[in-house]
Specification:
alpha+beta, two-stranded antiparallel sheet, single chain
Length: about 60
């Protein structure tokens, strides 16, 4: 469940920074950051091309 927070009592500057925050069911204070060190490829051949810089893809 994602809730959009909107606090009409916030000052304008705060509302501009925090007004669009999407919170998960964990009620974090900031939007979650999902750190990843791997990427998904459609095939082994696509991964091979990416690692050989023959295809523009993120690699790690």
């Amino acid at each position: 469940m994602v809730r959009k927070t909107s606090k009409p009592s916030w000052r304008t500057a705060t509302n501009l920074v925090r007004g669009g925050t999407n919170r998960s069911e964990f009620a974090e204070t900031n939007e979650a950051i999902f750190i990843t060190s791997g990427y998904v490829y459609e095939s082994a051949e696509q991964a091979q091309r990416a690692f050989k810089n023959q295809e523009d893809r993120y690699i790690y």
